[in-house]
Amino acid sequence: MMRLRGVIRFERRHEPLAPPLRFLGRMLVYWGIVGIASAVTLGIGVMGYHWLAGLPWVDAILEAALILGGMGPLHSLPNATAKLFAAAYALFSGLFFIAAMGVIVTPVLHRILHHLHVEIPESIEGEQGRRAG
């Protein structure tokens, strides 16, 4: 667990840039987090389409994958419950995509900003200090 914390933790402003292997490890951890979350999200969609819409398992996987990937529905849905689930799952999938991209981009953006030594202006830094205290 301690080793994983070292991979995930970002460098502070005055620390040197992480070595390439640590950065690669960090990227793999973040991709893994998104991969596991995507599998859980896909599983929710598959179960919903199978149980609520009555689709066979393969068609439920296809429908959930298309919605999660942003492609849109393939099958017509038989009842109002299935349609409400599909609407909720589509909205959730859109928000999940935004969150997943944020998680994936965070290490890269942090590395770029850390490499460029982007400083917070003193006026903003002072306001943050006053708010925290």
- Rg for CA atoms: 21 Å
What do we call the CATH topology? Helix Hairpins
Extract low-pLDDT stretches.
none
Proportion of helical residues: over 70%
Structural class of the secondary elements? mainly alpha
Number of strands: 0
The largest β sheet comes out as: none
Sum up the overall morphology in one term: elongated
The fraction of residues in strands falls at under 5%
Output mean pLDDT. Answer: 85
Secondary structure tally, helices = 5
User: Gap between N and C termini, in Å?
Assistant: 32 Å
Domains (count)? 1
CATH architecture: Orthogonal Bundle
Helix and strand element order:
HHHHH
Walk me through this protein's architecture.
- The protein contains 5 helices and no strands.
- With 133 residues, it is mostly helical.
- The mean pLDDT is 85.
Question: What's the short version?
Answer:
By secondary structure, this protein is an all-alpha fold. It has helices at 2-8, 20-53, 57-68, 80-116, 122-132.
Q: Helices, strands, pairings?
A:
Blueprint: H1 2-8, H2 20-53, H3 57-68, H4 80-116, H5 122-132
Helix pairs in contact: 2-3, 2-4
